[in-house]
């Protein structure tokens, strides 16, 4: 029996191998989904580094070859046959299921189905259909209006007093009095100069540090790192969405973590620096500690 299995793999072994191959391929394809946005930002922000996108194209090519290889093709055919012969109609692909359910409801169905996935917290509120990404020429108006409507403050920031004024400012300063100061670095993309948020660096209210430096305090360092993570995974997020996120920190030192119910984390004694958007009738930002966060 043993001798037999060492020469020709049993059907069970082949099946296990094929399941493993397809799982690996699925994971690779999931990673691939990040490439288009990564390409866009690296091309628009850093033309000289365009060569850095070559590995991404190489990965695309390799995965294409993987898919065409005969072991994967055999595994896919077997999976297809298995699905055809399966009378249970249990769909093991939740992603496809959700996409189908999210189609706009027909007029005859007044109660749209809200899938469970839509209720999971996410990094940003779903963009309201009528909100356009902010463009360069709208920025000054947006800042003025923001300051009229809010207690927190948004300013176009010049690094030095003699830095000339420009139509395309690259730095803004957001202030929640006595809580946090955030320097927002922005860039511009496309013909209308759509604003891209490149970086957000958090500092203590009275900390006198240049925007490109790092705060001396752990909580603000953690906050800056959290911003970097969010912007890295959502490189094309609108300026308005970034502002919505920033405004959610007004009670940074008061808000309790929805994960553990504490203000200060057990480890490190840091307030909840993570914010995840929870959909609902109103929708709200939920504070979490770094250690209590779920995947974003
Ligand atoms: Zn917590």
From TrEMBL:
Coiled-coil annotation: which residues? none
Q: Which UniProt keywords are given for this protein, alphabetically ordered?
A: Nucleus, Transcription, Transcription regulation
Question: Where does the record say this protein resides?
Answer: Nucleus
Similarity annotation: Belongs to the Mediator complex subunit 27 family.
Annotated region Disordered: the residues are 79-113
Chief subcellular site? nucleus
Task: Give the protein's recorded name.
Answer: Mediator complex subunit 27
Write out the GO biological process terms.
Answer: regulation of transcription by RNA polymerase II
Sorted alphabetically, which InterPro entries does this protein's record hold? Mediator_Med27 (IPR021627)
One GO MF term on file is: transcription coactivator activity
Gene Ontology cellular component annotations, sorted alphabetically: mediator complex
Q: Does this entry carry the keyword Transcription regulation?
A: yes
């Amino acid at each position: 029996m043993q001798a037999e299995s060492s020469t020709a793999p049993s059907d069970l072994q082949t099946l296990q191998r094929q399941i493993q191959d397809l799982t690996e391929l699925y994971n690779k394809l999931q990673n691939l989904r990040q490439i288009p946005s990564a390409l866009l930002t690296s091309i628009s922000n850093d033309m000289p580094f365009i060569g850095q996108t070559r590995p991404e194209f190489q990965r695309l090519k390799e995965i294409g070859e993987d898919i065409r290889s005969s072991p994967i093709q055999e595994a896919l055919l077997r999976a297809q046959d298995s699905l055809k012969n399966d009378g249970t109609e249990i769909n093991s692909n939740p992603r496809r299921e959700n996409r189908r359910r999210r189609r706009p409801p027909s007029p005859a169905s007044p109660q749209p189905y809200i899938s469970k996935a839509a209720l999971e917290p996410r990094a940003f509120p779903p963009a309201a259909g009528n909100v356009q990404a902010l463009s360069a020429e709208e920025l000054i108006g947006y800042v003025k209006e923001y300051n009229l409507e809010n207690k927190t403050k948004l300013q176009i920031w010049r690094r030095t007093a003699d830095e000339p004024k420009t139509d395309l400012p690259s730095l803004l300063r957001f202030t929640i009095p006595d809580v946090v100061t955030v320097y927002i670095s922005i860039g511009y993309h496309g013909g209308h100069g759509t604003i891209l948020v490149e970086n957000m660096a958090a500092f203590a209210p009275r900390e006198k540090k240049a925007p490109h430096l790092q705060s001396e305090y752990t909580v603000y360092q953690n906050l800056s790192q959290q911003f970097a993570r969010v912007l890295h995974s959502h490189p094309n997020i609108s300026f308005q969405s970034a502002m919505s996120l920033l405004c959610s920190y007004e009670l940074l030192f008061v808000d309790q973590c929805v994960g553990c119910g504490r203000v200060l984390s057990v480890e490190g004694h840091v307030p909840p620096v993570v914010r995840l958007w929870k959909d609902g009738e109103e929708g709200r930002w939920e504070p979490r500690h770094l250690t209590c966060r779920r995947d974003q």
